[in-house]
Amino acid sequence: MLPSRIVLGTPIGVNQDGNIKRLDYKLNGLMAYLLTFIAYYIICYHYHTIPSTFLADNFTLLLVAS
Predict the structure, then answer these.
(1) TM spans, by residue (predicted)?
(2) Which helix (H) or strand (E) segment is 33 a member of?
(3) What is the mean pLDDT of each run of 10 residues along the chain (66 residues)?
(4) What was the pLDDT predicted at 65?
């Protein structure tokens, strides 16, 4: 029998403080990173709105500002 699909919010473990770890946090974080890089790719390489070296040139500034 095949395993059932994993639904967002499925408990996957317990944190050290006793709270339940849920899968939705991991998926949401991963999706946020993926969407950010996809948007960056589209803006830089497809539309040529900002130079493709923008992130590399301003990486330190972006880290300090955030």
Answers:
(1) 30-48
(2) helix 23-41
(3) 58 78 67 82 75 74 67
(4) 64
Kindly provide the b/e burial profile for residues 28-51, where b requires at least 16 CB atoms within 10 angstroms of the residue's own CB: eeeeeeeeeeeeeeeebeeeeeee
What is the pLDDT, as a whole number, of residue 58? 76
Specify the pLDDT at position 66. Answer: 55
For residue 65, give the H/E element and its range: helix 59-65
Q: What are the residues whose beta carbons fall under 8 Å from the beta carbon of 8, sequence distance 6 or more? A: 23, 24, 27
Measured CA to CA, the distance from residue 9 to residue 23 in angstroms comes to 5
Question: Between vectors from CA 44 to CA 32 and to CA 42, what angle results, nearest 5°?
Answer: 50
The residues spanned by each domain of the chain are: 11-65
Written as six digits, the tokens of 18 are 């006793």
